[in-house]
Protein: phosphoenolpyruvate--protein phosphotransferase
Organism: Vreelandella malpeensis
Amino acid sequence: REANAWSRRFERAETRDGHPVEVAANLGNTLHAADAVERGAEGVGLLRTEFLFMAHSSAPNLATQTNEYRQALEALAGRPLVARTLDVGGDKPLPYWPVPQEDNPFLGLRGIRLALTEPGVLETQLRALLLAGAPREDGLACPLRIMLPMVKDVAEFRAVKAIFDRLMVEIPADERATDVQLGVMIEIPSSALLAPSLAAEVDFFSIGTNDLTQYTLAIDRGHPVLSAQADGLHPAVLRLIQMTVEAAHAQGKWIGVCGELASDAVAIPVLVGLGVDELSVSARQVPLVKARLREFDLADARESARRALAQSTGDAVRDALEAN
Ligand code: PEP
Ligand code: MG
């Protein structure tokens, strides 16, 4: 089965009846982009740029960041790169960017909230991404998707969009990305509940099921005892995903899933049945996720989603899906 998945890794990802679902890779290091392509990834669905910041003893400068992002885009050769802006704080401290001692770091200064306290750092990152996304010498476009982490409502998006719009005017058009989108992660319940207002303004959504599950169920995703209960297939999480997909599609926006749930064989039909357009998973999983998609029809997926949403606990969802 694995050999078959590997031999078909470059084929377009779609369900048995031909419904396309993009399969992209999650990366922590731009050097791994070539490997992701070799494993069949149709793009990078989540570049965790914080690892670049963690590899330096102070914030990497404009040139360093531009080179780094350019490397990934070159390796992707025209495939899209979804780059997430710096997502530190909470469980991911950055030594040279100290955050005041907090009783609840998961509920504190992290993600886009933290970035907006130092807009200069965020602006340098946005500028580096835009410069890196300039078309190649041979004219090939480099589709660039910039994604903001831990957004709780549209105000945070607008604050970043204002910087982004200014840079798009400031940087000469032939020196920056042309095929560029600005979107947000949906990983806080408030942003799922308010997805219609966000969908009207963003270019795309990507659901971070790791944090969305943590914040919906109030279970620390790394908790030594409880994390087993932090199941992204919990019907409460699925309802938030359903609301978000509906809001995105009502505005003609695409929506991906980049948390762990996207590579869960039981969850994949549910996510497809809910209407998710893209799954972003670790590069190693790309061939297997593509193979899983080929095993069912869209109608089966919709039935799995319907059955899952009708349950009242995470275990009941898994039982109902596995019994099938
Ligand atoms: C998530 O929260 O699901 C996610 C993809 O982001 P991270 O795991 O980096 O927090
Ligand atoms: Mg997250």
Notes: Residues 46, 48, 187, 208-211, 258-259 surround phosphoenolpyruvate (ligand 1) (CB under 6 Å).
